[in-house]
Amino acid sequence: MLNEVFKQYKSGTDIRGVAVEGVEGQHVNLTDDVICKMADGFVLWLSKKVGKAADELKISVGRDSRISGPHIMELTTARFKAAGAQVLCCGLASTPSMFMTTVDLGCDGALQITASHHPFNRNGLKFFTREGGLEGSDIEAILEYAQNGESPKGNSGGSITDCDYMEDYAKGLCEKIKKEVNAEDYEHPLKGFHIVVDAGNGAGGFYADKVLAVLGADTSGSRYLDPDGMFPNHVPNPEDAAAMASICEAVKENNADLGVIFDTDVDRGGAVDSKGSEINRNRLVAVAAAIALEGNDSGTVVTDSITSSGLKEFIEKNLGGKHYRYRRGYKNVIDKALELNAEGINCPLAIETSGHAAMRENYFLDDGAYLCTKIIIKAAQLRKQGKDLSDLTADLKEPLESVEVRFQITEKDFRACGERIIEDLTAYAEAQPGWQLADDNREGVRVSFDKDNGNGWFLLRLSVHDPIMPLNIESDSEGGTDIIYKKLYEFLQTTDGLKL
Fold first, then answer.
1. Distance (Å, rounded) from C-alpha 168 to C-alpha 174?
2. 315: helix, strand or coil
3. Is 492 helix (H, G, I), strand (E, B) or coil?
4. In whole angstroms, what is the distance from residue 349 CA to residue 325 CA?
5. Got the DSSP string for 270-317?
6. Residue 243: in which H helix or E strand, if any?
7. Helix (H, G, I), strand (E, B) or coil at 480
């Protein structure tokens, strides 16, 4: 059982904390001592997981561009070496590439030092085995070892070797594009394409130089490719409005054919078409679904809960697939896709609207660079047919209005409070004329309304980690979101525990 000190580090299936000073009110809790204990905990957990002694383990370590990354890398590699492990120090790397070291380099485990899109002062530890990312229960086990001060027996036979695996990872993406585009100029399948990249000063700058340019693409006008852990230009996050505005602007300024954007550690990606329109959220899911369902007739696409009604119609009517709405959290949708496949259900794609996309053909690894690679391949294939990426989702119906409101839960036991509100709202909705409870919803309460009552839907759910209840509303009519919100607000006023 984790105490309050170590419980603070668990963030779903990652470990996160404050690594450097610089933000008022946020003091360093990811101290050297704590990091070393966590590294020891991972060795103990991994040794038990794979059935090898610590001095038989092979562990890779990478980091994103955060300013605390190099120091944390020194600490963790030293601890792994002290346990007797063979350590591959991969330096600046993407999170997906670190998983791939378990496939290509035979590593028993991998560590990526990252805090995704969070501010410069934060950092964290993300672990992999050949089976993929760890579960929340695995993280708890590692933290329990750390909390108890347990460490592997020291061994002088450990080693640290520098390894530029990103070079091989980039070459793998290049070979995939060459093979699937199969251009007349096989070595330069992207010749004639102008593609701009916005890496947000994270770890994704390699994609412009080591993938696109190598294959003949013009990448002039790309932005923020150099790693800078202070993130001086914008938050490296495809969900961030300023970040998306940046890549849209780059596409328009350079008359580019396509733009791609990554988060800090490149496990998420987004894109922009030649018109400067975002391929993000529902459109991104639609594009990925269209690609993944080729050769997978009637296949199932697992998404998170906040996807639009138009997307469901697009997947099921236009693409002939099945749409399985599940809970928020990229690991949730990936685990559900794995479960469905194990049951014999053809499920080639798990994707969250945040940009986490995992394809069965790629180990169900959420990899922003792989997703953008698949999109670029499709763009090249469509060009041969005289078409554009926008043609792929021409039939996708997008809402006229959409809004998200995040209500703070004021009660200490926020989970119990949120679950009570969801239960009460479900009963309330069942009794309201014209409120149609969704029969395919698996998180929170989703209710649809006809044209006379807002012409759309709302979803109220409990946040995966935080004392927050997010509310999403979409409508196909002007003023519809206000109409739906007012209907729901009548219920919300009767509840306790929400800051309205």
1. 10
2. helix
3. helix
4. 12
5. EEE-TTS-EE-THHHHHHHHHHHTTT-TT-EEEE-TT--HHHHHIIII
6. helix 241-253
7. helix
Token pair belonging to 363: 């180990």
Q: Tell me the C-alpha to C-alpha distance, in Å, between residue 34 and each of 5, 65, 160, 336.
A: 10, 21, 21, 33
What would the pLDDT profile of 276-327 be if each residue is shown by its tens digit? 999 989 999 999 999 999 999 999 999 999 999 999 999 999 999 999 999 9
With vertex at residue 469, the alpha carbon angle to CA 436 and CA 11, rounded to the nearest 5 degrees, is: 130
In 195-311, which ranges are E strands?
195-198, 258-262, 269-272, 278-279, 300-303
User: Which of left, alpha, beta for 167 (phi over 0: left; psi -120 to 50: alpha)?
Assistant: alpha
> Given a cut of 80, is residue 465 above it in pLDDT?
no
Rounded distance between C-alpha atoms, residue 465 and residue 418, angstroms: 12
Tell how far CA 152 is from the center of its chain. 32
Going by C-alpha positions, the residue among 438, 435, 445 that lies closest to residue 470 is 445
168 close to 104: Cβ distance less than 8 angstroms:
yes
Quick check: is 477 catalytic? Answer: no
Residue with token string 């509310």 = 471
pTM over 0.85: yes
- The residue annotated as part of the active site, out of 47, 68, 116, 222, is 116
